[in-house]
Amino acid sequence: MTNIPLHYEDALSVATKIHCGETTSVRVTEALLRRIMEVDADLGAYVRLTEATAIAQAEAADKSIAEGVILSPLHGVPVAVKDLLDTKGIPTTYGMPLNNNNVPSNNATVIQKLANAGTVLLGKLKLTEGAYSKHHPDVSPPVNPWNANCWVGASSSGSGVATAAGLCFGSIGSDTGGSIRFPSAANGIVGLKPTWGRVSRAGVFPLAYSLDHIGPMTRSVGDAAAMLGIIAGSDERDLTSSPKDVPDYLSALNGMPSELTIGIDRSYIEKNTHPEAVAAVMEVADCLVGAGGKIVDITIPYESSCEGWAITTAVEALHAHNETFPSRKEEYGPIGALLQLGQTIDAASYMQIEMGRRELKALLADIYQKVDIILCPSMPFYALPKEGSAEMDAAEQNMADTLKFTAPYDYSGNPTLSLPWRIGSEKIPVGVQLIGRAFEESLLLKIGHYIEQQSEHPMHPKEFP
After folding, report:
1. Alpha helix locations (H) across 255-389?
2. Is the pTM above the cut of 0.85?
């Protein structure tokens, strides 16, 4: 650990150094800005840097800390956010060039909470168009720091790349059908999709209102716990946000439950899934059994939610884009096809999917009477070729398989944690996913922290030291 470069240290470790006076937020922020200038020309994770804001926030953090006021576990730590979240006075594009001149007058609630916690905003990160499946033709996709020929994940692509490559100490992503988990798995980082309603969506441009989740993307489970503790909680600007108290997620990390039941659906895991993704899940299962866990066979009812995802998303996305689509249709890229689909869907079709959602939630509730967590891959791929390849296009068309480990839990709203397990045969990470009961993020983080300690996953890609 002592030889790890500053930019690859855990956010909590850097925070400790800042808080005890070993370094300052300004020094750390300047170091990260220099690294971004040096490295991001090759990776393209950032839409824009916010240098002036970052330095001003770092100076304020150092002043506060010197006076003995520490606002949060990550006070003074530089982070970055997906350019789907409104930032007051800072252009916010939502991955769409037609919004290049959009300058919000207010911060998204998550942005404000990060500022109130004393974190430092380095900049805004790339995403696919409107947080859908592909980048707009005028936007170059970021590059996977492990292998430039591999997919970076969608839609929080810049968040995955920047966090993996040490261009921030943590980032914020959003997840509607897998958009935190895909880039986290593809780039070898930790991605936490909280329970729907755990984190406010106020000031976040929607893809699908009833499916969107906001969560942290980090290089360690502890950092994810710290970031969730900052951004979680009720918000009067988002009446769907939960009024439940926010636990101390960091205090829940250590130790393992004395009794843990792990649900595994072997058919679900193995069908049309890359063998290395399957192997990683079974290795983690053995690891948890070795810690006293018990495997329980279950059946996941995933098919209807994967098949219906496009219908729900198309209808709700069309509503979100009603000010610019179809009036500015010619400025749209790939997401335009989704919005056109939304124009063709009748109320009965949408309602049928909604009825299926309620059935899914009931069936999962029954499963959680028997198990504490569900274990499965983060995604069915391993080393999937990058956007634009024939393999990637085929995966996008085969939605039932592509979304089977992600979309069901956007529909149900259950919290999920994706984390890297080891490096596979192609020298890039392979990960696993834990799914828990609603508002049981603490349990997922506890188990994830244990798995992380047993993992052989290296901290960062060697190509970007």
Report:
1. 266-270, 275-290, 303-320, 335-344, 347-367
2. yes
Catalytic residue numbers, as ranges: 82, 155, 179
Structure tokens at 128: 């696919």
Please name every residue paired with 264 in a beta bridge, in sequence order, or none if there are none.
297
- Of 347, 349, 360, the closest CA to residue 409 belongs to 360
Let me know: does 173 contact 180? Beta carbons within 8 Å: yes
pLDDT of residue 465: 78
Structure tokens at 34: 């220099």
Region of 346 (left: φ > 0; alpha: ψ -120 to 50; beta: rest) is beta
Q: Would you tell me the crossing angle of helices 441-454 and 221-231 to the nearest 10 degrees?
A: 160
Superfamily of domain 6-304+347-454 in the CATH hierarchy: Amidase signature (AS) domain (3.90.1300.10)
Other C-beta atoms lying within 10 Å of the C-beta of residue 59: 15
- Reference 9, options 155, 168, 193; nearest CA is 168
Domain ranges of the chain: 6-304+347-454
Of the chain, the end-to-end C-alpha distance in Å amounts to 14
d(CA 180, CA 157): 9
Q: Identify the H or E element spanning 185.
A: helix 181-187
Q: DSSP string covering 178-232, please? A: STTHHHHHHHT-EEEEPPTTSB--TTB--SSTTT-EEEEEESSHHHHHHHHHHHB
How far is Cα 197 from Cα 235, in angstroms, rounded to an integer?
A: 10
CA dist., res. 342 & res. 332, Å (int)? 15
CA gap 208, 200 in Å, rounded: 14
> Do the bridges between strand 260-264 and strand 373-377 make them parallel or antiparallel, or are there none, so unpaired?
parallel
Q: Is the pLDDT of residue 246 over 80?
A: yes
User: Which value, in Å, is the radius of gyration of the alpha carbons in the chain?
Assistant: 20
Helices marked H in 368-404: 390-397, 399-402
Tens of pLDDT along 12-49? 999 999 999 999 999 999 999 999 999 999 999 999 99
| Mean pLDDT computed over every residue of the chain | 96
User: How far is 393 from 407, CA to CA, in rounded Å?
Assistant: 18
